[in-house]
Amino acid sequence: MTKSAPASIRDAVTGDLPAISTLYNHAVRETTAIWNETLSDPQERRRWMGERLAAGFPVLVAEVDGQFAGYGTYGPFRPHEGYRDTVENSVYVTPDLQGRGVGGALLDALIERARAQGLHVMVAGIEAGNAASIALHAARGFTETGRMPEVGQKFGRRLDLVLMQKMLQR
Ligand SMILES: CC(C)(COP(=O)(O)OP(=O)(O)OC[C@H]1O[C@@H](n2cnc3c(N)ncnc32)[C@H](O)[C@@H]1OP(=O)(O)O)[C@@H](O)C(=O)NCCC(=O)NCCS
Question: Which ligand 1 atom is at minimum distance from the Cα of 133?
């Protein structure tokens, strides 16, 4: 595989759930990208994906050379009705394939889907030390609109949350 192999993006199918679950669990175990300590499994991810799709939100998969390379999705920013035109995204790229544009391809596709749905704002909630995710979002026009010191914790330390947002109307 070459470093420049482009990622192709498609809607997730149930056959992707084991790979999605494995990648999610890697993030839970090894990273502060997600502030959960509870591992998932394909059945739990199936419920999660079913809820996302039933609510009209996408779950997208990236492939590089026909292999699963990551996933991206968005869902409600906050549950209250007044936030109905604002969504929060998540993007996860397989560790071996990070840093070659897969995350960017997923985020571009999520932005296009959100625009097509007439949504107004996309938010990303990012751990303040996650330089790759902050760079990924900044390169796509997300700007920092909030910084919340020590609102989370993982691995025995408190974590700061950076909120970035992109206005979706062109
Ligand atoms: C964050 C993540 C999704 C980025 O995806 P990726 O495929 O590795 O990123 P890309 O190759 O598309 O690069 C995105 C940008 O970040 C930059 N970047 C990548 N790694 C970086 C790093 N460690 N530090 C600073 N910038 C970095 C790239 O140069 C690129 O900038 P550009 O578009 O201006 O060239 C991926 O690293 C990942 O899955 N990380 C673990 C899970 C995670 O943190 N998810 C996000 C939760 S908010």
Answer: 1
